[in-house]
């Protein structure tokens, strides 16, 4: 559930203390607090007395800050607001009261403005939230300003004397601020300070303070140098990113606005306010705000926001009389909105008429501003490895406390000075929790990022690389990602002329459009598109370009020199002329265009042939779109009997099908411009279908196979139709040829519980060679064959079948499913209990809207999948941002929203990113185990010596910490990943049993060897003359210290070799030449110290003279035994024997009891059965109530978090009887 601030757990809150604020995709929890002066004074007093430590703790824990300075209050009276976002990040914002005697504009619920002289507000992440008294809530003003009634927008469009006056502009600017998306460059000193006060660097400050006090100057200096260098590098990276982002988003230019009753003024774009009437220049500009188009037509490129390089046509908002009171909605009316940051390529207008747009949103409240905010304030990475890392550091801290107490006790008993006791006790903490740990942990990420850059894969968030190593599912967009961007014309199928009482037939396939056979079809294709000429070049959707080129018609747009016809109202007509070889068919003028809508799955135009113009104004409507949508709009008598068979046949082979239709309409010029599309898009006459080929990219199949062999699941998430998507999935390998494939659909009927009825259809059966057991298509257009399966019957049946699970391998479902966006929406709203099982087994999600793609990613994450999303940037931005890691194949500026961008426009980058992620993750594991082993080894050594009492001397510490440890750790990340992705997944849990056994097993071996070494040295009376402390010097050299120094030096090298793991995720140790070089150098140097010590070296390291020969060979033997036993334990016992036994037992336990599976999706897969019979189980039961528990029930908290409840095997959930319905 939602985590509440500490101070909310005491007394009950006052009324109005908490509110939920939703704006766009952002959900915030607001809590009000009043400042208490006495507590504030106490807060400052504690901060001073603690030398700033208390203030620093309150900086890290913001709810503590409020606890000591304020008390809970209503939001209406609050001085401070505690803001908790959907990621549980907390921030305290001060409420400010602004007063302006000239007044400020306060938006109402209906989008109108009222004038107020006082306004309470707070700022959060570049946006200002104001208190709206009538709503009793804080609100983003632009959210209300956007709700202007459509009728008011229409009136502004018709008003030649529109525009705000100067006083109203001033009032609105006081509320909304300047129209600037300004990424301010924070001062260098501030960046340095914020980096330096992080817990990591604060611990380093503590460590070096102890070391400097103790005289351990050299290594302390090295740590200071490394820390300062790291801070400077981090600050430089932050400043560089700020500069890049600022350069990308900051722009101010002169724009024309209509103000003061129709006067056109040239002003700076930062002076724009919501409600301003903006004049769109004819030859283009970059939109400085979000605005709704009032008249004319505008062609824009939205590549900056969506990655879509195809120009989009925006049309003026049109209002029917019955719609005047309807508030404007950004999602519903997006086709009329010019978004900030989009590039206006061209406007269509008439001489003497401006193309006008009303400003809706400015600055950071615009769509571009929201994108910039998402980049500036990214979601925190919630990765199990990171959580475990902090837990283990916490364990080390507890161990350090034990050592701290032990040191105090033993030194107090020996009568050591208080100063010495404090220093030695604090020194133990710096040994057990190594300050260099975080820096060492990043070496794998840095090395992986450098290797990715060499492959033209760029990462703007390197911390995500480790997350990629845990990837177990990859979601792919289809068009432009799995398949080529372009489409090729394949075939045309027109219809024969319909005789009275006869159903038309399809003509034979034609590889080109021929004038005699395809006359009406050619004319429809030549007219029905969104193409335009920009600087003489025909520009638009690639599909439209391909089809238009096939017709060989020409396109001309009116110019200022042409005679204008006032009948054409506010848009410039588009003239289309046939080629000379088609003299029979005259030219056409496009009067109105209804742009393509993904929800409507079609576009249409109203045209008129100039030579046919008469008083009746006969016009023609041409429509093209998806076959299923066009069929539903056509008169049944115009549909051939084999329509479904033909469509299914082409779609099954991966072709894209466009259906074309027409209708005669009788409209005036004025009505043609204003008529709603629903009034004309009905009772159409089907003209035929166009078949286009969308070829799979050459790399696609190989990459999908590579992921499949590595047990990484591939999912297709596309906006294309289900038939085409299924075919591409089959061809690319996303759909397995060895598994049954079910299509989950919905009908328009309701069941006994009032829910939409679900239907399962067997689309593919490998036992029958596909087609659901039937070779022929379905006359009713069902997917793949004559046999539909509707799950009927009782709940009694066999026990749930277990999913297939090879020993030690991934658990997989025995079947796959495909689904469309509309059915996914039905499940989301009516069958939420089915979503978990669906996303576990479904491989193709077709007709998915951008928000549905994002929702799918969230559902996968909620059941413990680590998700990578790969798309070309078009309509994929939301999903790219939602995934654990997004890979954009688009070089458009919007790709900055994804952590990874590949300059190679195919999915070959995906295995590279996953392989580097796995290598970096394994490196991080190895470095952590190495650093933890090093700290614990040194901890043991120091505790042994404290009993004498003595310690290692400074140069011995420096030799170990810098020469033996730091240099080796820095080389860990240079091991490249293996060329092939392994079936075995890398570990993601740092606190897993194998890791714990490995670390503590090595420490046990090291402890035994150190104990034997210490005891053996103490008993060598022949040359060990005993320990005599040199006065108060607690670092007096000793034979025991020298012996432990020699043996532990080799133990550190053993740890490096043991934890530098190779296959199956990285290449072998010998491939890492820098690491091998460091290990060889340290081995040679330490061997010289052990066997042939030189006097100057002995003096520098303060080593006692142990006799040559047998004593030193015995010490070398202790080190050799430690190395051999340690490597055998790690490489054989832990890596092979124990891991094999553990995986086998885990798989067996999971098969016996699914609740014992490691992850939520594994538990779900183990209970998914031989077929998706759980669909029937849910349909046969009443809808879930909030208190109902059951199979993977989902409950939504007020923070929109998805809580996956335990999946319980209920009696009666079994394979129900499946009644097979024969389709006519």
UniProtKB/TrEMBL annotation:
<feature type="domain" description="Cation-transporting P-type ATPase C-terminal">
    <location>
        <begin position="954"/>
        <end position="1130"/>
    </location>
</feature>
<dbReference type="Pfam" id="PF12409">
    <property type="entry name" value="P5-ATPase"/>
</dbReference>
<feature type="transmembrane region" description="Helical">
    <location>
        <begin position="216"/>
        <end position="236"/>
    </location>
</feature>
<feature type="transmembrane region" description="Helical">
    <location>
        <begin position="425"/>
        <end position="448"/>
    </location>
</feature>
<dbReference type="Pfam" id="PF13246">
    <property type="entry name" value="Cation_ATPase"/>
</dbReference>
<dbReference type="InterPro" id="IPR059000">
    <property type="entry name" value="ATPase_P-type_domA"/>
</dbReference>
<dbReference type="InterPro" id="IPR006544">
    <property type="entry name" value="P-type_TPase_V"/>
</dbReference>
<keyword id="KW-0479">Metal-binding</keyword>
<dbReference type="InterPro" id="IPR023298">
    <property type="entry name" value="ATPase_P-typ_TM_dom_sf"/>
</dbReference>
<dbReference type="GO" id="GO:0005524">
    <property type="term" value="F:ATP binding"/>
</dbReference>
<feature type="transmembrane region" description="Helical">
    <location>
        <begin position="958"/>
        <end position="978"/>
    </location>
</feature>
<keyword id="KW-0597">Phosphoprotein</keyword>
<feature type="transmembrane region" description="Helical">
    <location>
        <begin position="1114"/>
        <end position="1138"/>
    </location>
</feature>
<dbReference type="GO" id="GO:0046872">
    <property type="term" value="F:metal ion binding"/>
</dbReference>
<feature type="domain" description="P5B-type ATPase N-terminal">
    <location>
        <begin position="25"/>
        <end position="131"/>
    </location>
</feature>
<feature type="transmembrane region" description="Helical">
    <location>
        <begin position="43"/>
        <end position="62"/>
    </location>
</feature>
<dbReference type="GO" id="GO:0016020">
    <property type="term" value="C:membrane"/>
</dbReference>
<dbReference type="GO" id="GO:0015662">
    <property type="term" value="F:P-type ion transporter activity"/>
</dbReference>
<dbReference type="GO" id="GO:0015203">
    <property type="term" value="F:polyamine transmembrane transporter activity"/>
</dbReference>
<feature type="transmembrane region" description="Helical">
    <location>
        <begin position="990"/>
        <end position="1016"/>
    </location>
</feature>
<feature type="transmembrane region" description="Helical">
    <location>
        <begin position="1043"/>
        <end position="1062"/>
    </location>
</feature>
<keyword id="KW-0472">Membrane</keyword>
<keyword id="KW-0547">Nucleotide-binding</keyword>
<dbReference type="GO" id="GO:0006874">
    <property type="term" value="P:intracellular calcium ion homeostasis"/>
</dbReference>
<feature type="transmembrane region" description="Helical">
    <location>
        <begin position="188"/>
        <end position="210"/>
    </location>
</feature>
<keyword id="KW-0812">Transmembrane</keyword>
<dbReference type="Pfam" id="PF00122">
    <property type="entry name" value="E1-E2_ATPase"/>
</dbReference>
<dbReference type="InterPro" id="IPR036412">
    <property type="entry name" value="HAD-like_sf"/>
</dbReference>
<dbReference type="InterPro" id="IPR023299">
    <property type="entry name" value="ATPase_P-typ_cyto_dom_N"/>
</dbReference>
<dbReference type="GO" id="GO:0019829">
    <property type="term" value="F:ATPase-coupled monoatomic cation transmembrane transporter activity"/>
</dbReference>
<dbReference type="InterPro" id="IPR008250">
    <property type="entry name" value="ATPase_P-typ_transduc_dom_A_sf"/>
</dbReference>
<keyword id="KW-1278">Translocase</keyword>
<dbReference type="InterPro" id="IPR023214">
    <property type="entry name" value="HAD_sf"/>
</dbReference>
<dbReference type="InterPro" id="IPR047821">
    <property type="entry name" value="P5B-type_ATPase"/>
</dbReference>
<comment type="similarity">
    <text>Belongs to the cation transport ATPase (P-type) (TC 3.A.3) family. Type V subfamily.</text>
</comment>
<keyword id="KW-0067">ATP-binding</keyword>
<feature type="domain" description="Cation-transporting P-type ATPase N-terminal">
    <location>
        <begin position="155"/>
        <end position="210"/>
    </location>
</feature>
<dbReference type="InterPro" id="IPR001757">
    <property type="entry name" value="P_typ_ATPase"/>
</dbReference>
<dbReference type="InterPro" id="IPR047819">
    <property type="entry name" value="P5A-ATPase_N"/>
</dbReference>
<dbReference type="InterPro" id="IPR044492">
    <property type="entry name" value="P_typ_ATPase_HD_dom"/>
</dbReference>
<dbReference type="Pfam" id="PF00690">
    <property type="entry name" value="Cation_ATPase_N"/>
</dbReference>
<dbReference type="InterPro" id="IPR018303">
    <property type="entry name" value="ATPase_P-typ_P_site"/>
</dbReference>
């Amino acid at each position: 559930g939602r985590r509440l601030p500490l101070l909310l757990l005491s007394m009950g809150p006052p009324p109005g203390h908490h509110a939920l604020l939703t704006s766009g995709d952002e959900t915030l929890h607001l809590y009000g607090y009043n400042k208490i002066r006495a507590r504030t004074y106490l807060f400052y007093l504690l901060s001073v007395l603690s030398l700033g430590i208390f203030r620093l703790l309150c900086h890290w824990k913001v709810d503590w800050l409020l606890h000591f300075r304020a008390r809970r209050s209503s939001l209406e009276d609050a001085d401070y607001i505690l803001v908790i976002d959907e990621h549980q990040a907390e921030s305290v914002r001060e409420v400010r009261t602004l007063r302006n005697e000239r007044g400020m504009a306060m938006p109402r619920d209906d989008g109108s403005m009222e004038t107020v002289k006082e306004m309470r507000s707070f700022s959060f992440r570049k946006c200002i939230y104001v208190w709206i008294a009538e709503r009793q809530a804080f609100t983003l003003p632009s959210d209300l300003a956007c709700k202007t009634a459509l009728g008011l927008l229409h009136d502004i469009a018709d008003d030649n004397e529109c525009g705000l006056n100067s006083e109203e502009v001033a009032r609105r600017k006081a509320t909304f601020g300047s129209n600037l998306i300004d990424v301010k460059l924070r001062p260098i000193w501030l960046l340095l300070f914020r980096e330096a006060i992080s817990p990591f660097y604060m611990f380093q400050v503590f460590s070096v303070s102890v070391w400097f006090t103790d005289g351990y100057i050299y290594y302390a200096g090295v740590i200071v140098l490394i820390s300062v260098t790291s801070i400077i590098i981090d600050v430089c990276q932050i400043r560089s990113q700020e500069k890049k982002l600022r350069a990308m988003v900051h722009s101010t230019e002169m724009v024309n606005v209509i103000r003061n009753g129709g006067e056109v003024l040239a002003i700076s774009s930062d002076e724009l306010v919501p409600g301003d009437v903006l004049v769109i220049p004819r030859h283009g500009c970059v939109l400085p705000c979000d605005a709704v188009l009032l008249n004319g037509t505008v062609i824009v490129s939205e590549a900056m926001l969506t990655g879509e390089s195809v120009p989009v046509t925006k049309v003026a908002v049109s209002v029917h009389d019955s719609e005047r009171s309807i508030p404007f909605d950004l999602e519903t009316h997006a086709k009329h909105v010019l978004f900030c940051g989009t590039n206006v390529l061209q406007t269509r207008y008439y001489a003497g008429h401006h193309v006008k747009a009303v400003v809706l949103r400015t600055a950071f409240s615009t769509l571009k501003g929201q994108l910039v905010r998402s980049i500036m304030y990214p979601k925190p990475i919630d990765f199990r490895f990171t959580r475990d890392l902090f837990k283990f550091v916490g364990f080390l801290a507890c161990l350090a406390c034990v050592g701290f107490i032990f040191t105090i006790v033993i030194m107090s008993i020996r009568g050591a000075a208080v100063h010495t006791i404090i220093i030695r006790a604090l020194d133990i903490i710096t040994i057990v929790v190594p300050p260099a740990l975080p820096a060492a942990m990043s070496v794998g990420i840095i090395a992986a990022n450098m290797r990715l850059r060499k492959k033209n894969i760029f990462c703007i968030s390197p911390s995500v690389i480790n997350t990629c190593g845990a990837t177990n599912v990859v979601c792919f967009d289809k068009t432009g990602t799995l398949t080529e961007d372009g489409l090729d014309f394949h075939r045309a199928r027109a219809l024969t002329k319909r005789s009275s009482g006869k159903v038309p037939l399809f003509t034979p396939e034609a590889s080109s459009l021929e004038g005699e056979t395809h006359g009406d079809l050619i004319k429809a294709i030549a007219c029905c598109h969104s193409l335009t000429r920009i600087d003489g070049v025909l520009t638009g959707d690639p599909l439209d370009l391909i089809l238009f080129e096939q017709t060989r018609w020409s396109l001309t747009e009116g110019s200022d020199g042409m005679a204008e016809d006032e009948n054409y109202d506010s848009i410039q007509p588009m003239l289309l002329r046939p080629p000379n070889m088609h003299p029979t068919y005259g030219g056409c003028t496009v009067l109105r265009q209804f742009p393509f809508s993904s929800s409507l799955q079609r576009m249409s135009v109203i045209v008129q042939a100039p030579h046919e113009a008469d008083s009746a104004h006969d016009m023609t409507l041409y429509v093209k779109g998806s076959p299923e949508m066009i069929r539903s709009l056509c008169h049944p008598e115009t549909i051939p009997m084999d329509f479904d068979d033909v469509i299914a046949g082409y779609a099954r082979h991966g072709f894209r099908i466009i259906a074309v239709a027409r209708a005669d309409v009788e409209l005036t010029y004025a009505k043609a411009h204003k008529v709603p599309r629903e009034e004309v898009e009905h009772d159409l006459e089907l003209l035929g279908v166009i078949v286009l080929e969308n070829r799979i990219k050459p790399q696609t199949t190989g990459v999908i196979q590579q992921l499949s062999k590595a047990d990484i699941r591939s999912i297709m998430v596309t906006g294309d139709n289900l038939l085409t998507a299924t075919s591409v999935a089959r061809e690319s390998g996303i759909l397995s040829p060895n598994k049954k494939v079910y299509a989950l659909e919905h009908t328009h009927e309701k069941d006994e519980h009032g829910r939409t009825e679900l239907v399962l259809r067997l689309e593919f059966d490998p036992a029958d060679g596909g087609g659901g057991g039937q070779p022929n298509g379905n006359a009713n257009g069902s997917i793949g064959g004559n046999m539909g399966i509707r799950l009927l019957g009782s709940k009694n049946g066999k026990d749930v079948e277990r999913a297939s699970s090879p020993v030690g391998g991934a658990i997989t479902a025995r079947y796959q499913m495909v689904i469309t966006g509309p059915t996914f929406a039905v499940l989301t709203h009516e069958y939420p209990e089915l979503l978990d099982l669906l996303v576990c087994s479904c491989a193709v999600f077709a007709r998915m809207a951008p928000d549905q793609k994002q929702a799918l990613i969230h559902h996968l994450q909620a059941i413990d999948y680590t998700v990578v999303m790969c798309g070309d940037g078009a309509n994929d931005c939301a999903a790219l941002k939602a995934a654990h890691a997004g890979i954009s194949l688009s070089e458009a500026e919007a790709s900055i929203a994804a952590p990874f961008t590949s300059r190679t426009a195919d999915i070959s980058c995906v295995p590279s990113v996953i392989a580097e992620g796995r290598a970096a993750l394994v490196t991080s594991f190895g470095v952590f185990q190495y650093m933890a082993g090093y700290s614990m080894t040194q901890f043991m050594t120091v505790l042994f010596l404290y009993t004498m009492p003595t310690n290692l001397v400074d140069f011995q510490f420096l030799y170990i910490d810098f020469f033996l440890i730091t240099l080796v750790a820095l080389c860990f990340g240079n091991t490249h990943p293996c060329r092939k992705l392994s079936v075995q997944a890398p570990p993601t849990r740092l606190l897993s049993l194998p890791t714990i056994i490995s670390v503590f097993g090595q420490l046990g071996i090291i402890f035994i060897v150190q104990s034997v070494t210490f005891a053996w040295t103490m008993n060598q009376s022949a040359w060990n003359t005993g320990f005599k402390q040199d006065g108060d010097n607690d670092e007096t050299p000793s034979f025991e210290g020298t012996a432990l120094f020699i043996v532990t030096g080799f133990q550190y090298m053993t740890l490096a070799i043991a934890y530098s793991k190779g296959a199956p995720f990285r290449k072998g140790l010998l491939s890492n030449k820098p690491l091998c070089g460091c290990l060889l150098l340290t081995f040679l140097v330490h061997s010289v110290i052990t066997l042939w010590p030189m006097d100057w070296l002995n003096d520098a390291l303060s080593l006692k003279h142990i006799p040559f020969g047998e004593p030193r060979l015995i010490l070398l033997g202790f080190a050799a035994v430690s190395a051999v036993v340690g490597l055998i334990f790690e490489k054989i016992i832990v890596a092979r024997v124990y891991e094999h036994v553990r995986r086998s037992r885990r798989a067996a336990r999971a098969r016996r009891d699914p609740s014992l599976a490691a992850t939520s999706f594994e538990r779900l897969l183990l209970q998914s059965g031989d077929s998706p019979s759980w669909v029937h189980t849910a349909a046969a039961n009443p809808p879930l109530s909030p208190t109902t528990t059951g199979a993977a029930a989902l409950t939504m908290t007020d923070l929109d978090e998805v809580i996956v409840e335990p999946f319980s095997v209920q009696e009666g959930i079994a394979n129900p009887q499946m009644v097979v319905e024969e389709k006519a």
